[in-house]
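Assess this one:

_____
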Amino acid sequence: MAILAIMAIYKLNRFLFSTILLICFSAQAVSDSITGKVFNQTTGRPAAGDDVVLVKAGDLNQEQAHTKTDAQGVFTFNDIDAKTVYVVRVLHQGVNYDHNVIGMNPLEIKVFDAVPTITGLSGNIGMARIEPDKAGLKVTEAYAITNASRPPVTQAGSPNVEISLPANAVLDLVQVRDETGNWINRSALPVKGRGGHYAASVPFRPGDTLYKFSYHLPYHGSVTFHLKPSYPIQNFAVSLPSSLALKPAQAGTFKAPGVAEGMQVYPTMGPVSRDVPAFVVSSSGETLRPSAPSNIAPPPEAAAPPPAAASRPRSNPAAAPEQAQPSKQEFWPILVLIFVLVAVGLFGLWRMRRNAARAVTVNSGSKGRLSPLDALKEELFKLESDRLEGSISAEEYETAKSALTQSIHRAMERK
């Protein structure tokens, strides 16, 4: 009987050892290297010879490694820190294509050929957010431009966005939202001979591209705005707090305002083509201060994503580095994620302790229940199942395994 028990335990231990080796080698393959393939959607072939850069997710300017795609568009980064979150950046014909590395290996990254101009670019949503600040008024214009080119190509290269500012306004920044959700600074150069006009190069990839720019200007009771989007916009709106009032320069150009997040929202009567109807912003009689948030939903025609507020950089936008600028609103999902991870960790620890205690109880139970060997087998396979599913951490796994090992020794001594 003792010999049979020893042979059974040997088989179980051999299975356990093989499973642990498999898990360790699999984890090592995922954490120690990053592989991927770059595919050119314009030509329908692998993208060979493209530069591929590995950067940290928190600092897109900190290069960690550099390589090139081979003839099949494949690339590999070795000796990767498993605790670091990375972004893989592919440079194809002067345009960056970023891809978050979130436990998916190998990666599949799509790139597109670059052209200077695409006919028919237009935007579905545009918005100008006007609010008071310490120096006067701060304005953020945001636009979502759709690229429906066939075959798909990216418009890039020469300056393709023109920024027109009111008199005495100072440009603060120009930003583009990339594929990973980060806001990337873009440089803007003054247009020679045209005061208050700037030109910026924004890559319009297939699909929707969201870009925004902010500026500030002095305020002495009222300001007249003549906004000029670079592309036709189907739905445009102006938002401002209750301390400010909007009056159209011409009747019938703006709809009645709605309210969204404590801001008044004035949609235009129809699409705008390179020229928003002029309007005057003045004080409404209230103190110039940001309004409190409101839970009143906006009207359907005013449903546009409010541009994220951005801090003011140096006064020279042309010298601004192209780096990620996360908005304050984007910190809330991070806090929620941290809370969920902590809760999952606490649950896993409780489950590990429960399993270990159950293993000891079952193995020391009465004769009418499972034998120690059967109980060990059941708990061992459950532990391995939890490990493979990722429901427990490596530390919890080792602790539970140690408790089961002690139970084996006690069971064998009693046997």
